[in-house]
Every structure is written in structure tokens, then in C-alpha cells.
Amino acid sequence: SYWDLDMALSRDFHVLEGKFITLRAEGFNITNSVRYQDPATSFSTSTTFGTIRASYDPRILQAAVKFTF
After folding, report:
1. CA dist list (Å): 45 to 37, 40, 48, 50
2. In terms of CB atoms within 10 Å, which end of the chain has fewer, N or C?
């Protein structure tokens, strides 16, 4: 098992009556922890049996701006 820390921040700015801008920033795996996938369990590939050959996604950051009218 593993754990990860995801965060999101958003802020609304009112521009005119009934119109506003939303700024949003999101981060996934904020701590950038290494999360290994399961080891190879197939005996047919005896050279890679029991080795961990991959990991899950690294830190991902994204931002967005939305204008609502």
C-alpha cells in the first residue's frame, strides 16, 4: 500500500455583476514520493522475476483559469 498527498487551491474574483473569474491550482503527489508498482511475478520471464520495473506517476501540477458570465 501507499499514500499520497493531493491538494487544490481556488479563488473567485468578482469582475462585474454576475461575472467572475476563477483561478485554480492543483497538485498531485505533492511530496513527490516514489510509489513502486508490483514486482514481476511471471516465471516465464525468469530474468525479471521478482524485480520492480516501474513506478506510479511523479508529482503533477496544473493550473486553470475560468471566466463565468
Report:
1. 17, 8, 6, 10
2. N
Nearest residue to 53 (alpha-carbon basis) of 33, 41, 38:
38
Alpha-carbon span 39 to 56, nearest angstrom: 13
| Reduced 3-state DSSP string for 8-55 | EEEEEEEEECCEEEEEEEEEECCCCCCCECCCCCCCCCCCCCCCCCCE
pLDDT in tens, the chain (69 residues): 677 899 999 999 999 999 999 999 999 999 888 888 888 777 776 677 888 888 888 899 999 999 999
Q: Which residues face 15 on adjacent strands?
A: none
